[in-house]
Each structure stands twice: as C-alpha cells, then as structure tokens.
Amino acid sequence: MQKGQLEAEYNATQMAFLVYCPLSTDTPCPASLKEWLPETAWYSIQSLIKLDGFEQFSTHLEKEAPRRFQDWYNYLAPEVEKLPLDWKRLESLPFQKMLVTRCLRPDRVTVALSHFITKTLPHGKKFVECDATSSAEEVLFSSYADSTPATPIYFILSPGANPIKNVQALAIHHGFDPAKQLA
C-alpha cells in the first residue's frame, strides 16, 4: 500500500488509527446508545470522526439510524455485512471499513484484516491460509528460508506458546549446536 502497488490507497493517518485506535473522551456516550454500544466504542468513534470522510459518522450512528447500526453491531460477522446509510459505500473501500470495525467491533478486526488481505493483495488467499496445514516447525523453517539479515523473523506469542524447541531444531539443521552456543 505504502509503495502504491495495490488498489487500496495508503493513508498514514488511517493506518495509525487502525493500529492504535485512539479514544476521545470529550463527548459522553449518549444515553440512547448506552444499552448496546460500549463507551470505548463511542470514544473511538469520536476519534474516527476527526479523519477525512468520517466527519458525519457519529451523527448518523446516534441520530439518523441508531437501530440499523445496532443491527450491524449485533451481527455475528459484521465485517462482511453492509453498513447502514451511505456508509455502505465502504464496501468498495475495505480499509476504511476496517476502521469502523475497529471502533465498533474490535473483536472482529483480525477477521476483517484477513478479508482485506484476501481481497486486496495479489494471491492474498495464499497469505491468509499459507500455514493452515503446516506444523510450527515447518512454518519456522519456511520463514527462515524467506528471511535475510534485512528481513528478520518476529515471533508473536500467545500464552502457552514456546518456540524454543523449534528454533533449536532449526539451528541444528543448519549446523549449529545450541548447547555449545549457550556455554
């Protein structure tokens, strides 16, 4: 995106919003929305409306179609559903739709990002589903083959994950003895 090689246009401000999702607590959540909309969602929307193209989002949510937005919010997979009112135009702007998903349903951002990658990147499905049938060791060996000194490997760990044995197996495969290296 940043290099202009995709249809989706790169916008640094929108990318930062997707990553950090700042909150703006200046405007309290309207009582009419509190029964279904978490306050953090409202506060993130207050930040979203500061971005170009989203200025009317909170007004539409609160006054124009709150019930329709609530219906969208309550879908099991809202990221694949059309937003109410003119916001359905975001169907053709999937990155911007992810920003709305990030505000209203942060639990669905990972799935929305997978959809974005699948639709936007050439052969995007291969990136999303690339490791579905591979073991952790196979993924590491493949990642190592793709890495260079300028393209490192990052481990994003979840509770209970421990890649040490896989890293040791990779080291042994490439002629390093982890026991000697640590001594």
List the topology elements.
Elements: H1 12-20, H2 39-48, H3 57-64, H4 66-74, H5 94-104, H6 109-120, H7 124-129, H8 136-146, H9 164-173, H10 178-182
Helix pairs in contact: 2-5, 5-6, 8-9
Walk me through this protein's architecture.
The chain is mostly helical. The chain has two domains: 12-129, no CATH class; 136-182, no CATH class. 50% of the residues lie in helices and 0% in strands. It is built from ten helices and no strands. The chain has helices spanning 12-20, 39-48, 57-64, 66-74, 94-104, 109-120, 124-129, 136-146, 164-173, 178-182. Helix 2 (39-48) runs antiparallel to helix 5 (94-104), helix 5 runs antiparallel to helix 6 and helix 8 (136-146) packs across helix 9. The N and C termini lie far apart (45 Å).
Short description:
The protein is mostly helical and 183 residues long. The protein contains 10 helices and no strands.
List keywords for this structure.
mainly alpha; 183 residues; single chain; 10 helices; elongated
Task: Count the DSSP helices.
Answer: 10
Mean pLDDT: 91
| Uncertain stretches | none
Percent helix range: 40-55%
Biggest sheet, open or closed, and with what strands and sense? Answer: none
Q: How many distinct beta strands?
A: 0
| Beta-strand content | under 5%
Outline = elongated
The termini sit apart by 45 Å
User: Helix and strand succession?
Assistant: HHHHHHHHHH
What structural class do you assign from the helix and strand content? mainly alpha
- How many separate domains make up the residues? 2
Instruction: Provide the gyration radius in Å.
Output: 21 Å
